[in-house]
Design goal:
Layout (H helix, E strand, L loop, with lengths): L2 H12 L5 H11 L2 H4 L4 H7 L2 H8 L5 H13 L4 E5 L18 E5 L6 H9 L1 E5 L6 H16 L3 E4 L5 H11 L4 E4 L13 H9 L1 E5 L11 H12 L2 E4 L7 H11 L3 E4 L7 H11 L3 E2 L3 H7 L33 H6 L4 E2 H8 L3 H13 L3 E4 L3 E4 L4
Parallel strand pairs: 3-4, 3-7, 4-5, 5-6, 7-8, 8-9
Antiparallel strand pairs: 1-2, 2-6, 10-12, 11-12
Protein name: DNA-processing protein DprA
Family: Belongs to the DprA/Smf family.
InterPro entries: DprA, DprA_WH, DrpA_SLOG, RuvA_2-like, WH-like_DNA-bd_sf
Length: 383
C-alpha cells in the first residue's frame, strides 16, 4: 500500500472511540479507509453519534509521527509487512473469528510471501500454558512442539515466558516454523529475556501484532491477543495452566471459534495442572502423545509418522523373546512423578540427609530430577 492509504488506515486505528467493530461498519459503508475521511460530518452522523463524527473529522495528534515511524519500519527490511482487512496477505482464518483485527503487523520470513504464509497457517496448532511451569511441563511443551515441527506443523504461541517460549523453541528445534502473536508493537520485544528467541522466530517463522509500533506491554493487550492465537490455529493444546490463567481464555476462545481443544494431564497435586484437568472435564481431548493431536486434526494418517510421538512407552519385546527387566533407580521409584519434599523422601527411603541430598544432586545433574521452589523435587519423564 502507498503512504496515503497507510495514513488512512493508521488514522482509523488511532481515532478515539473507533474500535474494530465500528471500523468494520465504516469500511462496509464507504469501501475504503481513505473514503471514510472524505465524508462530510452529516454523512458520518448517519452511521453514528455526533461524537464519533467529530472524532473522525479531527486528525489524531500522533498520526504524523506514527506514519513516519511505520514507514521507516517497513523500509528497514523485506521481512516486514502490514496486512489490513481485505488484503491478500491477511490471514483468512482470522476473518471467521468474532473480532478480526483491523491491521496486522508482520515480521519474519513467512511475511515475505502471502501464499506461503497462507499454507503454513492452514496447518498450524497453538500451544499455550503457564508462565511459571514445572520443569516437566516446560519439557513437555518443548517435546510436543518439536514433534509437531518435525511433522511439518507450524506452532503458534504468544512469546511469553514458560510454556510459550518452550513451544517456539521446540518447533524450531524440530525444523518447523513457528508464529508468535505478541501484545506489544513489533519494534519492541517483551519479555526482554526472549530477545534472542524473537530473532530466531523472525528467521524461522513470523511475529504478528495488531498493535501499532511503539505500543508498550500493557496488561490488557495480552488477553486481547489470545483470540488471534486461537484464530490462526486448527486447534489449541494447553500444556499446563492454573484455574485462573490466560491459557484458559485462549482455550475458551478456541472452543467458541469451533476449534479443537487439547490438554495434557498432570499431577492432581499440582496447581499448574488444575486448568488442564478442568478443560478435560469440559470436553477437551486428553493428550498423551503428539500423535493424539495429529490424528484428531487429521494432519497425518492414523498410525503414521511414529517419529512425531513423544513420551512413548518402551517398545514391546519381539515375539518369543524374553523381556529385559529394567532396573529402576530406587530413589527415582520413591520420587514418583509428583513433587515431593526432602522429609517425605527420607521417610520413603530411610536414607540419611547427606546421602539423600548427594543422590538427588547426581540425578539432578543427570537431568532426571528437577529442584522446585519450596524445597521440593520432581522426577522428570524420559524424553
Amino acid at each position: 500500500m502507498d503512504s496515503q492509504e497507510l495514513q488512512a488506515w493508521l488514522r482509523l486505528a488511532l481515532t478515539p472511540g473507533v474500535g474494530n467493530t465500528t471500523a468494520r461498519k465504516l469500511l462496509t459503508a464507504f469501501g475504503s479507509a481513505q473514503a471514510i475521511f472524505e465524508q462530510s460530518s452529516a454523512t458520518l452522523q448517519k452511521l453514528g453519534s455526533d461524537k464519533l463524527a467529530s472524532a473522525l473529522r479531527s486528525e489524531p495528534p500522533s498520526l504524523a509521527a506514527q506514519l513516519q515511524t511505520t514507514l521507516d519500519w517497513l523500509q528497514a527490511g523485506d521481512d516486514r509487512r502490514i496486512a489490513v482487512l481485505g488484503d491478500a496477505a491477511y490471514p483468512a482464518a482470522l476473518l471467521d473469528i468474532e473480532d478480526p483485527p483491523l491491521m496486522l503487523y508482520m515480521l519474519g520470513t513467512l511475511s515475505r510471501h502471502a501464499d506461503t504464509a497462507t499454507k503454513t497457517i492452514a496447518n498450524s496448532l497453538a500451544i499455550v500454558g503457564s508462565r511459571n511451569p514445572t520443569p516437566q511441563g516446560e519439557s513437555n511443551a518443548r517435546q510436543f512442539a518439536r514433534a509437531f515441527g518435525s511433522a511439518g506443523i507450524c506452532v503458534v504461541s504468544g512469546l511469553a515466558l514458560g510454556i510459550d517460549g518452550a513451544a517456539h523453541d521446540g518447533a524450531m528445534l524440530g525444523g518447523g516454523e513457528t508464529i508468535a502473536v505478541v501484545g506489544t508493537g513489533l519494534d519492541r520485544v517483551y519479555p526482554k529475556k526472549h530477545l534472542a528467541l524473537a530473532h530466531r522466530i523472525a528467521r524461522q517463522g513470523m511475529i504478528i501484532s495488531e498493535f501499532p509500533l511503539g505500543t508498550p506491554p500493557l496488561t490488557a493487550n495480552f488477553p486481547k491477543r489470545n483470540r488471534i492465537i486461537s484464530g490462526l490455529s486448527r486447534g489449541t493444546l494447553v500444556v499446563e495452566a492454573a484455574l485462573q490463567s490466560g491459557s484458559l481464555i485462549t482455550a475458551r476462545l478456541a472452543a467458541e471459534q469451533g476449534k479443537e481443544v487439547f490438554a495434557i494431564p498432570g499431577s492432581i497435586h499440582s496447581p499448574q495442572s488444575r486448568g488442564c484437568h478442568a478443560l478435560i472435564k469440559q470436553g477437551a481431548k486428553l493428550v498423551e502423545v503428539a500423535q493424539d493431536v495429529l490424528e484428531e486434526l487429521r494432519l497425518v494418517p492414523a498410525g503414521s509418522a511414529p517419529a512425531t510421538e513423544v513420551l512413548q512407552a518402551p517398545a514391546e519385546a519381539d515375539e518369543g523373546e524374553a523381556p529385559v527387566p529394567c532396573a529402576e533407580d530406587p530413589l527415582l521409584a520413591a520420587l514418583g512423578f509428583d513433587a515431593v519434599s526432602l522429609d517425605a523422601l527420607q521417610a520413603r527411603t530411610g536414607l540419611d540427609t547427606a546421602h539423600l541430598q548427594a543422590q538427588l544432586l547426581e540425578l539432578e545433574l543427570d537431568g532426571q530430577v528437577a529442584r522446585l521452589p519450596g524445597g521440593l523435587f520432581q522426577r522428570m519423564a524420559a524424553g
